[in-house]
Every structure is written in C-alpha cells, then in structure tokens.
Amino acid sequence: MSASTKLSTSVKALSYLAATHPTTHNSANIAEQIGVNASKLRRLMSMLTKNDIVKSTQGISGGFLLNKHPKDLHLQEIYCAIEDRKAFHLDVNKKSGKGKNINVTFNEYFLNLFSDIQVDIENKMKKINLLSIMKQTGIKSNYK
Which CATH number goes with the domain that contains 78? Predict the structure, then answer.
C-alpha cells in the first residue's frame, strides 16, 4: 500500500470514528463503511493504536475509538504513525567507476532538495487537523 493510500485510508477511518463517536467499531465494520480491505485496515489501526491515536477495546462490544479530539489530531501525527519513512525518499547508491563524480554531485543536490521539500510538507501537514479535513469533505464530527 503506498504512503498516500495509507494516509487516505487512515484519515477516512479516523473521520468515520469521529463522526460516530463515542460508538466503538470493529475493523470489519470500519472497512465496510469506508470501502477498504479489512486486513489492510487492521494493520493501519494497529499502528494508530500503538501511537495513541485510537484506543482498542477487547470483547463482544470491543473495537476502535478515536483517542483524540479531531481538532487536536494533525495530519503529520497520522502520517508519522503509519509510515516508517519520509514522504520524499532518495535511494542513493554510490557507484564507482564511470560517472562516479556526477552521481555524487547529483545525489547531494537531490538529497538537499528532498530534505527541504520534506520540511515543507511536514510543516504544512502540522497545520491540517482531522476536523478541518472533515469539514472540507462534508463529514460532521460527533465531538463537542
């Protein structure tokens, strides 16, 4: 699953939990409501639980519950919970022989460029919270 798909799926699931708060939902129910594969969603929900974004409860009435108010949950926090690498990643292979100097020069250029872009992306994602996404997409939150 690509980073953008994981982020989109996570935001949909979290929006659904916010819209139906305080009801808990199991992964099969959430997956059905947002139209994704339940096993992929379970993996994402596990990561979101480990990062205290959602709570997981066991038992017959168990399931997932949003652990933060949507206005306090930023896109950057969600992204960091589900991704183990930066949005812009450059696989730098230092080659020997012909073209070595030009590869090193271009690799350094793109590493610096991608680093700057990454900072810009992270700063922008810190300014976007789940509640604002829900408002822009027409989903009402049950949080007060």
Answer: 1.10.10.10
Predicted structure pTM score: 0.82
Amino acid at 24: T
Task: Report the run of H or E that residue 17 belongs to, with start and end.
Answer: helix 3-19
CA 108 distance to own-chain centroid: 28
Q: Can you state the percent helix, strand and coil of the chain, rounding each to 5? A: 60, 10, 35
The pLDDT of residue 104 is: 73
Its domain, for residue 60, covers 3-86+128-136
Assess if residue 104 is contained within a domain: no
% the chain with pLDDT above 90 = 65
